């Protein structure tokens, strides 16, 4: 079969763009886009819209109809080969007479993990897998799915707004508003794309946030509060709306009266025990919450960073100075040498209004100190947005 690499790039780019249309709705499933092409033209397109919905390949096959015979499928992830909530895509492609499948990356799900590609090859379908940048792009697009599948933990992004001198609130705790209106709209779009938004009980007590999406299109994420004993203000916004927006409390220990009180308000209570935040995050992943946005204060951020549980940082840096004595970005002891500092990689800067926005992956983390707080007692990062 003659292969046109420029055509491959063109239609794989389109498949990735289609996959993004499911952002924020597919958990615990991955984002997937697919394009069926015949004689140089797309005859079917699809993306996965959510659990229980047809997979991207099936949507594209339905649109293509009989034109799928002899066509090439471009797909951002290996077609599945097992019966789950929907039938296997690999067999549907074989039955439709698809001649070639170009997949960006092999699916790490143990139920798939190369079996879909093997089924296609055994049926005589030509298969091309993951040339360099496609594989990297697929892994980046589904970073949360890949992390949860391989580690049992969600992808954690810590988001905060800070001043030029690294403060996330004034000395009295006021943090509204450090960042610009444009930055706050971006922050709400991040909420809409996340499976869960997480804060500490200190942020709830100080800021009384709703943690809903109001400045962007999209649905509200599950709201997660980390609280040692599960204690929250009885009249806080999160409890008042727990019956409408899913709300989870991650606690070290909860007595029965507190548990009963929270559950009567519609809150799911999860006990982490001595395992701490690592166990708590694993519980979230088990519930399909694979992409967690942390908007907590310095204490929660510091605890997550010290335990190596943060994957990405998103920092809105505003052109203002707050001064000494105000809350710092993270409540962790200073390192004694620059060589031991937390290192960031894949750093990207952009301008949002008058603010700078930093995207970065977290590299090596300084080992935890006994002085590190377990949960966020201080507010910051504009969690009340």
Share of helix, binned: 25-40%
Q: Gap between N and C termini, in Å? A: 55 Å
Largest sheet: 9 strands, mixed
Strand % is 15-25%
Number of helices: 12
Order of strands in the sheet with the most strands? 10-9-8-7-11-6-12-14-13
Question: What is the approximate shape?
Answer: globular
Mean pLDDT: 89
Instruction: Identify low-pLDDT runs.
Output: 364-384
- Structural category is alpha/beta
- Strands, total number: 14
Summarize the structure.
The protein is built from 12 helices and 14 strands.
Write a structural description:
The radius of gyration is 23 Å and the shape is globular. 29% of the residues lie in helices and 21% in strands. The chain has helices at residues 5-19, 56-64, 89-96, 115-122, 132-141, 143-151, 181-193, 201-207, 237-240, 256-264, 276-286, 298-306; strands spanning 33-38, 41-47, 72-75, 100-103, 126-129, 155-163, 196-200, 222-226, 247-251, 267-271, 291-294, 312-318, 344-352, 355-362. The protein has twelve helices and 14 strands. The protein is an alpha/beta fold. It has a nine-stranded mixed beta sheet, with helices on both faces. A five-stranded mixed beta sheet has the order 2-1-3-4-5, with helices on both faces.
